[in-house]
Fold these 4 entries.
Entry 1:
Amino acid sequence: MDRIVVLSQSRLTKPSRVFDRGPEWSALTAFVSRPLPHAMLGIVSGRRRMGKTYLLRALVEQCGGFYFGATEATEAESLRQFSAAVAEYTGSPVPFSFATWDDAVSYLFGAAGSGRRPTGGPHADGPFLVVIDEFPYLVKVAPELPSLIQRAIDRYQAEESRLRLLLCGSAMSVMGGLLASSAPLRGRAQLELVVRPFGYRAAADFWGSAAAPALAARLHAVLGGTPAYRRQFLADDVPSDLGEFDEWICRTVLSPFSPLFREARYLLAEEADIRDPALYHSVLAAVAQGNTTRGGIASYIGRKSVDISHPLNVLEDSHLLAREADVFRAGKSQYRITEPLINFYEAVMRPAWARLEGGQAREVWAQAGERFTAQVAGPHFEAVCREYVLGPGRSLLSTSLGEVGSGVVTDPKERRQIQVDVAVAEQGSGGNRPSVALLGEAKWGTVMGLPHLERLGRARDLLAGRGMDVAHCGLACFSAAGFSEALRDEAARGGVLLIGLDELYGRTMPSGFLP
């Protein structure tokens, strides 16, 4: 067996035009560069507009690999397009004509064997990268493709092949199923990469709003971290300061002439498993209105809880809905819309759709302030605060262990429930008691004061009464509107953190300190 030439990761430098995506680039280059003399498979997925194609095309350029982007077409046309792409890549004077996908797959794996690689590119002696983008389009018309690839992968574990095959797609339910328990490709992949939206800090840098946290927070609450929305959709139409935000949102997201206007609907329609959009929009509307439990969603849309299991599962598989466990109550959970634009659509746009289509964006937005605060900005701010604790704020804690989430603490004496928006808790094991490292409350439009801190303190006492270890549990107040002087004085004494927008975006350090 011939020695395979190592394609060094250091030679695969991320182009400057690719914003952020450092961990993703490192994972991809490590996959491509691995000096193994047999074929390898990687799965790359992510919702549309995340920049998957942009990222993979940059990688292909660096490696001198082969890229094929599938389209919605019949099996015969798709095979013809693939044959033409291979012929162009190899520089063949004679057009390729694969009779079946079996022939096409066999050619790719065999041609990547020692001495037969079909390229004279810059790394002709190294691994041969092949990217098949929008793979679900091909699976739809040729469902045997995963089985054909599985057979070839198994064969070229014994025989030499330098192929590094990346299958990419945006239909999350389809891509997630490729490696499921009974799927042909189960156990065959060496890489499973989900390209996610930018985090809130990276998104602020991308939109050029990092120096204006109040603006950055609102942009992220509406559009999230989807890179395509700035460049492809809005052609760099970005508000320069908070004072321009209202006018900007009316001429972009709320304008029937903007490509963002119907984007939330398209995101739902693009998922292959969603065949009744009305039902799925109703489920999402229920969550956007604050009905976040399974029972609450079912009641809102007039169905039984058992009847909404399928749409909930499909929305989870599509990464449009997330089920988040209550960190204090076993078996309890709440649902959250993960795509901010869909949440904004369901909360603000859908109830006033006819008026928006009629060009009344300014009137609708002027009347939507309370809904935006309660149903969009508030819940999104809570999620950002949890992201902060998971990331840059982790160093503030006395422990690096624990689950970050939210939960409800029941106060039987006062006959009330205390909602804890940000909690870091660790389940007990090995004889150790469950412990809590942080309890936090997050408010978007409220100046926080001592009553908020007292409520958190009461929750801590109740958890201690339930046998949890709270000896090193700190308290944190997160507010986009600020803090009272009395609360600031209390934070200066220790045991509590005050974290506003400047702290969330890394412009200043949090006030106060934890035990």
Note: Residues 200-251 form one domain.
Entry 2:
Amino acid sequence: AALDEVAAELDRHLDQPLREVMWGEDPDALNATSYAQPALFAVEVALFRLVEAWGVRPDVLVGHSIGELAAAHVAGVLSLADAARLVVARGRLMQALPEGGAMVAVQASEDEVLPVLTEGVSIAAVNGPRSVVVSGVEGEVLAIGEHFTALGRKTSRLSVSHAFHSPLMEPMLDDFRAVAAELSYAEPRVPAVSTVTGEPATDWQSPEYWVGQVRAAVRFSDAVRTAEESGVRTFLELGPDGVLTALAQQTLTSDGAVRASALRKGRPEAETLVAALGRLHVSGSDIDWNAYFEGSGARRVDLPTYPFQRRRYWVDAVTATGNVSAMGLTAPQHPLLGVVVSLADSGGAVLTGRLAVTAQPWLADHTVKGAVLFPGAGFVELAVRAGDQVGCGAVEELALQAPLVLPERGGVAVQVVVGAADESGRRSVRIHSRAEDQADLPWVLHADGVLAPEAAEVGAGFESAVWPPAGATALDLGGAYETLAERGFGYGPVFQGLTAAWRRGEELYAEVALPEETDPKGFG
């Protein structure tokens, strides 16, 4: 309902209804900043109204670029009508500027970037202690990017049509000032931190502030630091992805700071939003659960007879080994393995464990045609641990021979067998399994390969300092996991780690990250 209300107000100033652009048949239409900015504003305001209806109340507001206008509206500085007019004018005037220019994110501090700026380039954003975006004349921006690439720093050109927050924005400022001057402004009802100054906002009610905000750098890192210094420990990002949530982590210094994203690209929207709400709740934020469950048929139940202490009761599943040393064995201290036996005659080893959906629930997030399949990366993990046991630092080769399907009930026994070393120190490795309740059946070989004392030198042709790789084209990951699911590959939340991908000829490049709150402890 909130999205309908905001979109209807924006539509009064747009040539095409916003909803037609956001969910229309032309996916490129939303790339135009004249529609991208209103769309961002609409989504952010609608998300704010939704969580507000569930009792989430901000102590401090921070907005990034167009997000600062959304923050100003929900803080009461601008009415919806005036905010919509200003947002549309901002996007339309920027769209009318000549295309060109460039924006490049560089892995560097602001102090490192300032000396290499040119007349046509300025800092567009300071997102973290070592995360700066430069913007302006294309050739000069790319030259600065190349400068930091040569220093071994990560750089990334942003996919934008214009060089925002740069000198190239100046031709639109007078026209934007004329629109801003006709609007009404009020004092903010909620404290806010300016991303122009990085300090508490004092002049959001000034038209001139919003004119300068178009040109000025977005000092997001400073704003996060100021919010933290004022006592903020819980940060909720209201937008179409979790980019700012990740950037904030670079700045935050306090232990236990809670970060949550209302939406994440490529993930189910309702699940992601409710998960963020739950994370706020367990960290101590007040949620109006009566409002959340209104009309759902949910009912209250009696609580236990002791008071809640807001502690985490559930424990991570571990492999129960008992006192294996009493039997002359050792425990490998690995989440998937329980016992290791060193072989006296060959110097090899046998590592054993038990795999089951009940013991490792995250495995249920990896299915093919409805069956839970132990992932290929899992075999690599077992081989790596086996190599560590016998002093081999590299898995030189590993070939998968048969899939390992986990049963709905019970589990499978796993053996990782490492052979004797040859003249070069290499050892064979073989991974077998057998249903735990069928000891009379033969073991199934799932993977075999070679462990080596040291890793071979990486071949030439890939320069990790340049990212994305030069000449690579970004791929649209929208609906990727849904498409895979239609083909029978079911990847649950733990396995939805693909965040970005590029293609260069026949080569594919990707960025993969563990989802938030995934604990990799104990894994190689």
Note: The longest helix spans residues 33-53.
Entry 3:
Amino acid sequence: MNRIVVSFLSFFLLFNLFISGASADTIEPKLQIKLVNYIGNQTQLTIRPTGDYLIQGSNLRLKNGTSYMVKYDSNRIIVLEGSTTLIQSDSVNLIPSLETNYLTINNRPYLGSFRFIPENSKYVRPINEVFIEDYLKGVVPFEMMAGWNKEALKSQAVAARTYALSYLNKVMDDTINYQVYGGYAWHPNSTAAVDETKGEVVKSNGRMISAVFSASNGGKTESNANVWGTSPVAYLTIKTDEFDAKTPWTFSVKKQQINPATIAWEQMKETDASLTSSIKTWMLSHGYAGKDIRITAIPILSLTTPTSGGRVSKGNITIEFLTKDKVDPSGLFTPQKLEYKNVPASQVRAMVGIRTMLSYLVTSATETTEAITVSGLGDGHGVGLSQWGAKNRADAGQKYNEILAFYYDGTTLSKEYTERPQFVIPSSDASTPSVVETPASGAAAPPVVETPASGAAAPSVVETPANGVAIPPVVETPKADTIAPMISSVKVSVDNAKNKTTISFNTDEKAKISIYIKDSNGKILTYLAQNVLTERGTTTKEYSTSPLANGKYFVGIIAIDESNNQASTLPSFDVKKIVPVKDTTAPKLTGIKVSVNNSSNQGTLIFNSNETAKLTVYVKDSKGKILTYLKKDALTKAGTVTLPYSTAPYANGKYTVGINAVDPSNNKSSAAASFEVKKLKTGKVIVSLLHVRTSASSKAKIIGVIKKNQTVTILSTSGGWYRISYGKLTGFVPKTAVK
């Protein structure tokens, strides 16, 4: 940077602090964000300023509404207007002439200033410097659904602010590696959440915490030590979260992926294409770069060693595969194998895909001869704030401070800053710049992301510095209106269940509005409005999607003001009509258990049904004849069914309990279980005194005496003797003494 410009900016930063009466500790800081997520790796970018931008270190300005090209060439950055080169340098810095100006990069708008640098001797990379509150307004609606309860959004805003402040003087990017940042694509609800918590952060013992968060903790929070191996902190504890959505997930993988008989490379197709694609992507960056791989089998996949928070920490996986370049002397592909035993569970998850295995909270893992199935709860690491938990807590009436207090134990809220420094109108020379007040609400209403409306906001009132030397405002000759209407807050809501789409947007001035629907081939299907003169404010239209097939469509919105300035935008929406899925799965009858008490002549049947169904339950004899029905076409809820019945009418022998289940879609299943009736015989003593002996012999020891007419239970027969029981007495008596 030019030394004069550096000194100039340093002086006016101090100047701003002085005239505002604020200390540096109370001033809102800026962040540097490397723009990657929506731009990718490009050798050239199209930019379009709304309001002028100064090219720092030169006398050049990028003009409002004009498109420019920023290119990488021979490790330098070139800015072109059409075919004319404006500047080429090792890096190019752009600074807005007004704080409310914004720059559109490849159709996405961003507030703040920009530095364009070469990256990897190949690409041009923009780094966006922006006030943290404006940054958060571009983060919160991309990290949490903007239509959710505002108290949940406020808890997300405070967590995101606390997280971001740990990266002052560092460069973050706009991806999930840090926080997803969508630029100047704001939503009114999330913007209000940021504004209402301005400057607030979460602290523990006077220091800002590590305010980590995930989508869903599965009903139980996890500690940082278990997930990342760092020293445990008091505010990230393990506890039950009854408000979390307990997001369920499951995946299955076939052990054999390719038929071994397939020998042609082009015909080798893995059964689980998505999961094996993830594994192959992992392999390409772990020793198999440039290889053409076919995964033939995944015979082992297991997850073990739960932490104190219940999440798996270790895993085993075996991959059998072929590579196109490795063949034996006969020309057959050579089988290869990767075996990982007792590796971190994070490696297994990275291999199968983090959107396949959503979390480490595994609830079940089953294995058959053909497949392995893993199920779990949650989405993400489960440490700190749960976004779904915050949403449900807010819906239940909890305030954002209560939500944060639950997820970050023993912490407090603190206001880190209160004011934003006044904006200095940049100048390319050493003359005194103008100072304007920052509008109380920050930036102007955000534009539509796809095609931002043109035109810069009007400057604020010029303030006299504290030293009494007035800085004269620039007096311009009134110009004709050349600023197009601003189309903002565009929202397209699709209700596929009702085949209805609602379109709403704001315009900042009176204009003729046209709204149309077109398909993905560019064909206009219908107009919802055509050149309708409309006052400034919100416009809402409803459209029936019943005639449309599933697919992507576009809403065209055109606004033309009274000076014939035109703005437009083209948001998309997807039609995904809900087709009822026919239930073809029969009810599952499991856990069948039959018990019989032959002493009391009672039987009990217990089983589980996994869905509500009409149940018929019967008992039949060994010849197949149905003796009785315990249930007949009885609609029964899913769960455990317990049916007691009497065996008194049944003779000794084997019997079968049959169960038929028919669900509401007429899917049928059946099951059966057998039981045996062995009723005990009884007899009456017919002698005056009956001696009970230890064995079937008249010489055996007498262990008791039973009087005449007493009833005894005959347990078994041994020659001319019965083995009987009477009360607590058990022994042998002659058959002739019992009738």
Note: The chain is about 15% helix and 40% strand.
Entry 4:
Amino acid sequence: MSDSAQPPVPGAAPARNWDLWTPGAALIAALVLGPVVAVFWLAAHPSDNLWPHLVSTTLPRYLGNTLILLGGVGLLTAAVGTGAAWLVTLYSFPGRRWLQWALLMPLAVPAYLGAYALVDFLEYAGPVQTGLRAAFGWQSPRDYWFPEIRTRGAAIIVLSAALYPYVYILARAAFREQSGAAWEVARALGAGAWGRLLRVGLPLARPAIAAGVAVVGMEVVNDFGTVDFFAVQTLTTGIFSVWLQAGNLSGAAQIATLVLGLVVLLVTLEKISRARSRSFGAARAIRPAEAERLTGWRAWGTFALCLLPVLAGFALPVGVLLSHAIGPQAWAAPGLFLALWHSLATGGLAALITVAAGLYIVYAARLSGRRLPVLLLPVTTIGYAAPGAVLALGILFPLAGVDNWIADRWLALTGTDPGLILTGSAAALVFAYSVRFFAIAQGAADAALGRVPPSLPMAARSLGRSRGQVLGAVHLPMIRASMGSALLLVFVDCVKELPATLLLRPFSFDTLATRAHAKASLEDIAGAAAPGLILTAVGLVAVALLARAQRD
């Protein structure tokens, strides 16, 4: 058995006994991996080989823009997230405790909402240029110069403002776990603040920072709303263009394989960085570093530095949306509450299915003692790394085949055509959400079940309880809080998901995310304000959970 394999639950049947847990886990894994396999199959069997044309025309631009975004956002989020984590962990200044939570708040605002708000704030009719014209007496754009807003650089800034909390969370945890003795020794040897950071803090925190940057990179590759609004052509927008505009499914699949290759490269680089940087804690409990108290201008300067990301990533987007959402007309728009219901229904159903499936496969791996469920656990997390547009591509093709097979059989039996059951309903959306965020549920279930003392299920089995009864009577009451948190986090991510929703939703089926995107694409920021604010409110619930987990 591999090193990562979990020991079977005491009292479990010997490995030679076959039960429903192992085939059930295999079925769940097949459903999770199916879309990715379908993408590779489509790419390998093109009906019209568009690849040479893509390589000679648009693909270099797609790839170049994607790599520039990855590099720019990666560097900026690493600097902002690590710097903020260092300051709020190792220094004491006014507002520090509030900022520890506030720095997480940009996670509640999807990046595409930040893009809409920035353009509305800085455009010709926005408050900034209007104020400049009023202050200096300018009459037209010919009287002054103002930088172009919808550019690749603006996309990098918006994505960084929305995604830096991924680095901040992991970097802060790494700084908090470092020994205070190491920092005191460095200070005694004459190292200043920058010297201690560069020689002690960063080397020890580098694996955590690399992991955060890798997550940021996967989110950048997955993004569609921001780059589409700024007219930056990336690999993800290329999938939309080749599939929906050129009508070439195989060409879109070939671009999708390149996207998956980039994601695999990001994950591999992150693992290599961790493998080359090893550190071990002391045998005794580690005394964390004591926060150094700042006074005067240094204290308020540090507060201002930490406040800037919060203003850019949360206050500005929410403020702009609020300014457009004043008045009952914004909240009484036709279709708004139907879109809210669609988001709640699909996100809630997907969250329930995802958490139940994640718990099932983890419990099966711990229970059966077989290699297959244990080996399937890490493989099924690939869905979280795959961008939504890629998963949509891999889901639509096999589901359409199943739809046609069902329709043909039903027509032969009854003489009536049932239509599209899966791809013509929200079922495809629920499936895509479940695959995309399965890793969150699985990770939460694995961590929660690992905290259950083995003696408890052993006692239940000795009293004649079945495996399912042990799960319901012993494990579920003890892991209820963790599973509830996973349920909420998956739900929030489902509600915010845009690329997969755009590609898989039925006709005239809007969610909050697609409604905000559609209104903003028509330059109707006022129409995008209400759904955007509801999305942000839902995201704040997840931020509150993260803040609670990060609490001292």
Note: The radius of gyration is 25 Å.
